[in-house]
User: Fold this.
Amino acid sequence: MMSSAVTPSSIHVDQVVVKGCAASGISGIYKQENGSLYEGAPLFTRQVGSTTFAIYRVPSNQRYWYIGRWNRSTNSEFPSSRLFKSNLYNYRRDGRLIPPEDGWASCSKQRSSQQVPKCHFLSKAAASSAADTAVNELIVSGCGLPMANGTYKRTNQRCNGLPKYTKTAGQITFTISSVFNDKYQQWKLYQNGANIIYKSNANHRVEGKLDGAPFDNSTWSVNEGKGVHPPPQVKRG
Assistant:
């Protein structure tokens, strides 16, 4: 059974961002399940259509972490299938019970080691501080793809908890949004939401903080095969 709810500040992690997994539906943002604990550790879930994926710690003496499906229609108290397992026994980080970033293995021999996920973390405090440093506009210029130049407006949409900036050119939508891990943050410019055509240098996160917009001195590069030289200059409006 789930124990009493805890505040997010007591575990300092509100979302887990899973990346790099080729198994369908696994990659994405998992949110803490109503601030609840399961077997003394936070439970994170992600809804994909009618399927619920979960990151949870197993009820056993070994206390390994798993990523699995949760068939809620059967009123199961925990995920009914195990897709990936951490190889780290009773993992803690800085004294916190959170899923491991690395060390995941497939529970199926049919999946290669190249398909295992990686976990990154985002707290409400980090997202909030990033929103405070966001701007209303970004100005893109000098780009080898002329349609990508222009003014990008901050939207109410978010990517991994951070603001997104967009502009449209006819039927094409260009978006600037951020990706990050525990050490670095990078901004990417997308065409129609999927094709990454340009990306900024990966800046080292200072004291774990996230920025709500790229800095004027950021160096951008072309995603070869997708973007057109030269890369853009991006400045805060």
